[in-house]
Design goal:
mainly alpha
Length: 235
């Protein structure tokens, strides 16, 4: 599934512009030269990719445990179903769940950190802003994290999230350096695409879990070998 990470990030970046474009445009970048502006834009995006990669590394340990026990196919199907439930549940339920898991409080703390960093210009500050931005709760990031879990190891999970982050860079870099807001009409059209993208990703996970023998989409997954048992030798 690593091949899908960059493509998913590229498609999801249009959603990122609508949700995080205001943050990218409020960063105290070097406006004196184009080179300085580009370096600051790259620093901001590097921070996001670093955070995504570290998240992928952490969840990769969780995914590895499932692979070792042979439950990766079941996990893939469950993740696909959860994505569908997440995107099609009533909004009021989503708000209650966010409060229950502490995401609302977590988001408020990150935004407070943003307000402090935005008053401290410098490339290191911009890198930190990008890293914090990567921690903001986001439906597309959740789906990417699900893919990182299914990658099967910490290294693959890290690679999956890194590729996802790199896929979001072109559009976010353009937004950060253009200093222009995306038109409201475009944002609304992007939001209309979210359920379709989420459904596509969910179906990919479900197909992968079914192991139908379809190359790249639903490959057959061999069962893990049985634990070694001591041979009984009759004399």
């Amino acid at each position: 599934m690593l091949w899908s990470a960059f493509l998913f990030g590229l498609l999801g970046s249009f959603h990122c512009v609508g949700m995080c474009g205001a943050i990218a445009l409020s960063i105290p970048m070097d406006m004196a030269t184009r080179l300085g502006l580009l370096k600051d834009g790259l620093a901001y995006n590097a921070g996001r990719v670093i955070t995504y990669s570290l998240i992928g590394l952490l969840v990769g340990f969780f995914g590895k445990a499932f692979f070792q026990t042979g439950y990766q196919q079941l996990l893939s199907i469950e993740v696909g179903v959860l994505i569908l439930l997440f995107y099609f549940m009533p909004k009021r339920w989503g708000g209650k769940l966010a409060g229950f898991f502490g995401l609302t409080y977590f988001t408020q703390q990150i935004r407070r950190s943003f307000s402090v960093l935005l008053n401290r210009p410098g490339r290191t500050t911009i890198l930190l802003i990008g890293m914090l931005n990567g921690l903001l709760p986001c439906g597309f990031v959740y789906m990417a994290v699900a893919g990182a879990v299914l990658a099967g190891s910490p290294a693959h999970g890290m690679a999956y999230m890194a590729l996802f982050g790199l896929g979001t860079v072109p559009m976010m870099l353009l937004t950060a350096t253009s200093r222009q807001f995306v038109a409201i009409k475009i944002r609304n059209r992007i939001k209309m695409l979210k359920p379709y993208l989420a459904t596509t990703v969910a179906l990919l996970f479900i197909l992968r879990g079914l192991a139908l023998g379809i190359p790249y989409l639903s490959p057959s997954v061999p069962l893990p070998p049985s634990p070694n048992t001591s041979e009984i030798i009759c004399e």
